[in-house]
Amino acid sequence: MTAGMADRTDSMTTEHTDLRHDPRPRTRAHALPPVLRAPLEGRTWRELGWIVLSLPLSIVFFVFAVTMTSVSAGLLVTFVGIPLLAGTFAALRGLGAVERMRARALLDADVAAPEPVSTGKGGFGGWLAGTLKSGVSWRHLLYSVLHFPWAVFGFSLVVPLWTTGWTLLLYPLWQWVFPAYSNVDGIQVYGDSTRGYYLDSPLEIAATSVVGLLLTLATPWVIRGLTSVDRLMVVGLLGPSRLASRVVELESDRGVVVDTAAADLRRIERDLHDGAQARLVALAMDLGLAKEKLTEDPQAAARMVDEAHGEVKVALQELRDLARGIHPAVLTDRGLDAALSAVASRCAVPVRVEVDLDRRPAAAIEGIAYFTVSELLQNVSKHARATRASVEVWRVQDRLMLQVVDDGRGGADVTGGSGLAGLAERLGAVDGVLAVESPVGGPTTVTAELPWRS
What we know:
Layout: H1 3-21, H2 34-37, H3 42-74, H4 81-106, H5 123-133, H6 135-169, H7 171-174, H8 177-182, E1 187-191, E2 196-199, H9 202-238, H10 242-296, H11 298-326, H12 329-334, H13 336-345, E3 351-356, H14 363-384, E4 389-396, E5 399-406, H15 419-428, E6 433-437, E7 444-451
Parallel strand pairs: 3-4
Antiparallel strand pairs: 1-2, 4-5, 5-7, 6-7
Helix pairs in contact: 3-4, 3-6, 3-9, 4-5, 4-6, 6-9, 10-11, 13-14
């Protein structure tokens, strides 16, 4: 793989990370650096609110969880303990919903609700068994227990830092309170029965304000460090499990695959019905007429047979094109290099093809790569108004990379129900990714990433 391909791969990976995990719009540049504006940002005050509210709420969650679980465990020798424990888990799910809403409002963490309780055959017994066996229930209990000491630690650290920092920073504004109402000159640093040391000179007041400024500037970053742990706890313990998320993703991908397969079958049926089948029906009728005229007008029959022979050639070509659209023989026999070269030769503009693969990927992935490039080159021929294009294929570890570039008018968009959107869904069904960079005026660069799966 060339250095240029490696650079494109690194930049594509970065772009994919941005597209998948940071969909929020980019904010404008600020005049102040982050360190100076952090104490006044809304994010800091929201996260501070999270930490302050976490202490009383975690006390409620902890006391409820520990008390009810202990009582339920003690009553397990009777029938009462089992439904009481299930009811405790159900209540903890409700408390978890409160925490997710709080995290969404204060931590900007949009955590989805976990999977519902599986009731099996239904009824109270099914709900009881499903609640007790559900990993979500036990994760909510674990959150209620673990979050309490963390909330105490965060509150005890942040609140003194925050109040002390602002108090010392604003000391020049309220230092007059001491001589006016306390008969002392300022904040007492040291004192005994004989003497005391107070922060009352202009230099000491300024130094106190500087110390307060440093604390005020440092505290937001302490808050962010603490709330990052809170985010992990909320996502990991109160959100859906990775297995459940993967199941939902696979179900969605399966739906895309089924819809795509159904659409392909409809396309094949339509092509057969409107193309080769209609032509063969007409051919059979022509041959029937030629047979009738064979004795009456041999020359006319010969002309009709000659025309039918031409129709047979056209029908055969249509069937070959249809078979190539299903799965080209050249791809099976000779691989992506030859197959993509054949596709490029049918494009309306000159196409340079470069395939750098040491061996062939899985047949399914190879087919998806072929049809991806085919569709992209069809877009180049029909819509791009380009004068040239290029196709490059290479491998990076366990990923197959495709890139199609044209010098057309640009403006391609992967949203809005376009063909590129459907192509992105097909790639996503096999854990692939499609990235489109197409500014108005061009050029257009479409990069696809597929799993290797050899």
